[in-house]
């Protein structure tokens, strides 16, 4: 028998954090077949739902996430809930202090500085390795994604769509690097960058400027010019950092 998270309008707290977040028709199904196939990924599935709720602002910074209500709402044991919390903590989306409470993280200026300085280092390495290891197919995919972004410049683009396209482009650069450890570190940092991007208004001039910089990234990788690539990515990340700081401070 299937146990599902019901979609309701209850306040976001504990179990209701997830129940309100889940959109109509987008519920976490837990029949026997699902459980058999999700033994390894059940914690991932819970983490994905909570992560998306945090991204959308459905669970506010400083709010506590509770194991028992979530476990009861999902009809699963507390183990996968704890594992999901641990993954979100590793991504910097929640904090778990010594008292054991799981709290949605409040991002500070120090967080911005750390995330963007780390991101700059990662992006430099990604560009170097993408130039060395990237294939024609990788470049074609990067160009395709830039073309999609350009096609949306004159449309009503919301913050989420713009952030999605931005980071999906960078995902391709990391994939082209063929650097597995680099990709792993990027995967852990990515959710925090995503929250920052959602916070700024990228639907107009900012997004148009970033379009040009994404095309420049493709061009320098295609040219195999590592010196220009370093200058290009530094300007790209610095621009994004300046925009975030302007909004948050």
Could you explain the architecture of this structure?
The structure is a single chain. The chain is mostly helical. It has 2 domains: 15-104, Arc Repressor Mutant, subunit A (Orthogonal Bundle); 109-248, GntR ligand-binding domain-like (Four Helix Bundle (Hemerythrin (Met), subunit A), Up-down Bundle), CATH 1.20.120. 68% of the residues lie in helices and 3% in strands. The protein is built from 11 helices and 3 strands, in the order H-H-H-E-H-H-E-E-H-H-H-H-H-H. The chain has helices spanning 15-21, 32-37, 42-55, 67-74, 78-90, 109-133, 136-151, 159-177, 180-198, 205-223, 226-248; strands at 64-65, 94-95, 102-104. The protein has a 3-stranded antiparallel β-sheet with strand order 1-3-2. A hairpin with a 6-residue loop joins strand 2 (94-95) and strand 3 (102-104). The model is unreliable at 1-19 and 21-27 (pLDDT under 50).
In short:
The chain is mainly alpha-helical.
CATH superfamily of the largest domain: GntR ligand-binding domain-like
In the CATH hierarchy, what is the architecture of the largest domain at level 2? Up-down Bundle
**Strand runs, count:** 3
Range of helix content: 55-70%
Topology (elements, then pairings):
Elements: H1 15-21, H2 32-37, H3 42-55, E1 64-65, H4 67-74, H5 78-90, E2 94-95, E3 102-104, H6 109-133, H7 136-151, H8 159-177, H9 180-198, H10 205-223, H11 226-248
Antiparallel strand pairs: 1-3, 2-3
Helix pairs in contact: 1-4, 3-5, 6-8, 6-9, 6-10, 6-11, 7-8, 7-10, 8-9, 10-11
Properties at a glance:
Arc Repressor Mutant, subunit A, disordered N terminus, 2 domains, Four Helix Bundle (Hemerythrin (Met), subunit A), three-stranded antiparallel sheet, 249 residues, mainly alpha
């Amino acid at each position: 028998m299937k146990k599902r998270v019901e979609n309701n309008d209850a306040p976001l707290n504990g179990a209701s954090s997830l129940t309100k977040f889940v959109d109509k028709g987008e519920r976490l199904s837990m029949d026997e077949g699902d459980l058999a196939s999700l033994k390894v990924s059940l914690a991932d599935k819970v983490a994905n739902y909570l992560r998306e709720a945090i991204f959308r602002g459905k669970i506010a910074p400083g709010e506590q996430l509770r194991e028992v209500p979530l476990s009861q709402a999902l009809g699963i044991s507390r183990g996968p809930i704890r594992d999901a919390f641990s993954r979100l903590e590793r991504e910097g989306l929640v904090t778990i202090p010594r008292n054991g409470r799981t709290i949605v993280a409040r991002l500070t200026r120090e967080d911005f500085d750390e995330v963007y300085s780390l991101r700059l280092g990662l992006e430099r390495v990604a560009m170097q390795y993408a130039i060395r290891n990237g294939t024609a197919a990788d470049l074609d995919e990067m160009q395709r994604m830039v073309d999609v972004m350009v096609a949306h410049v004159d449309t009503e683009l919301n913050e989420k769509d713009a952030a999605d396209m931005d980071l999906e482009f960078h995902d391709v650069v990391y994939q082209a690097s063929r650097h597995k450890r680099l990709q792993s570190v990027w995967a852990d940092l990515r959710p925090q960058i995503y929250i920052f991007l959602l916070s700024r208004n990228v639907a107009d001039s900012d997004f148009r400027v970033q379009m040009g910089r994404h095309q420049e990234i493709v061009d320098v990788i295609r040219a195999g010019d590592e010196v220009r690539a370093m200058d290009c990515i530094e300007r790209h990340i610095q621009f994004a950092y300046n925009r975030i700081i302007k909004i948050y401070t």
